[in-house]
Automatic annotation (TrEMBL):
Substrate binds at H83, H181. Binds 2 divalent metal cations per subunit. Has a high-affinity and a low affinity metal-binding site. The true nature of the physiological cofactor is under debate. The enzyme is active with cobalt, zinc, manganese or divalent iron ions. Most likely, methionine aminopeptidases function as mononuclear Fe(2+)-metalloproteases under physiological conditions, and the catalytically relevant metal-binding site has been assigned to the histidine-containing high-affinity site. Its EC number is 3.4.11.18. This is Methionine aminopeptidase.
Length: 255
């Protein structure tokens, strides 16, 4: 069931979204050659504590995972698409990092992700991230009252495919509100004019995931959480929580 949020609830979600934005900014600033992923999780966790917020990621245990997620921050490096666990890996020059983070504040959730390069960037990685961000912007632009979920999916997928990138099937965005994952599902590829109609008060996470090689194949790593590209190519993941309003889409997880 899709829950429509009141304007007051959307304002509360905006506060949770600000916490997420601050945490991801802090993570990006802390990430450098030689930094351990586990330390980035501590950076993000401290932002949560300072805000009086909690993590919807920590101890989250969906049916596909063998164990609950052990951290507050998701860090997916290079060929990892999503769901990477921040462990003892030490960042290297040129690493492509996707950081995904959520915050629960006063009963409402914000969820967002960024991708960035540590140290010396490779031009192909810069282009991959820029395209992911363009796909996200296209999806947000389509998130207007009167459109449907398929219009968002089509907008995201068109940018990705036109640029020659792969899209991992079965993973995409979702509704968000009192919990991290709510109805409706928001795919990263689809047909325009199809799916659930967009109405004032809906809140969704739009999150393009791009595979550099143009192939769609992926597999779960031995940890049961991290999804990696089958061919070892790099991936990028970006995300915003967006409220659909009569005045247009409102990004809730921007600074």
């Amino acid at each position: 069931m899709v829950e429509l949020k009141t304007d007051t609830s959307i304002e509360a979600m905006r506060e949770a979204g600000r916490v997420v934005a601050r945490a991801l900014t802090a993570v990006r600033e802390a990430a450098a050659v030689g930094v351990v992923l586990r330390d980035l999780d501590e950076v993000a966790h401290q932002v949560l504590k300072d805000a009086g917020a909690t993590s919807p990621f920590l101890h989250y245990h969906p049916a596909f995972a063998p164990v609950p997620f052990p951290a507050t921050l998701i860090t997916s490096v290079n060929d990892a698409i999503v769901h990477g666990i921040p462990d003892g890996y030490r960042l290297r020059d040129g690493d492509l990092v996707s950081a995904d983070f959520g915050a629960s504040l006063d009963g409402w959730v914000g969820d967002s992700a960024i991708s960035f390069i540590v140290g010396t960037p490779r031009p192909e990685d810069v282009l991959l991230i820029e395209t992911a961000e363009r796909a996200l912007a296209a999806g947000i632009a389509a998130a207007v009252v009167g459109n449907r979920i398929g219009d968002i999916a089509h907008a995201v997928g068109t940018v990705c495919r036109d640029a020659g990138y792969g899209i991992p099937e079965g993973f995409g965005g979702h509704g968000v509100g009192r919990s991290m994952h709510e109805d409706p599902s928001v795919p990263n590829e689809g047909r325009p004019g199809r799916g659930f109609p967009l109405r004032h008060g809906m809140a969704i996470a739009i999150e393009p995931m791009l595979i550099a090689s143009g192939k769609d194949g992926y597999h779960a790593a031995p940890d049961g959480w991290t999804l990696r590209t089958d061919d070892g190519s790099r991936a990028a993941h970006v995300e915003h929580t967006v409220a659909i309003t009569d005045a247009g889409p409102r990004i809730l997880t921007a600074l």
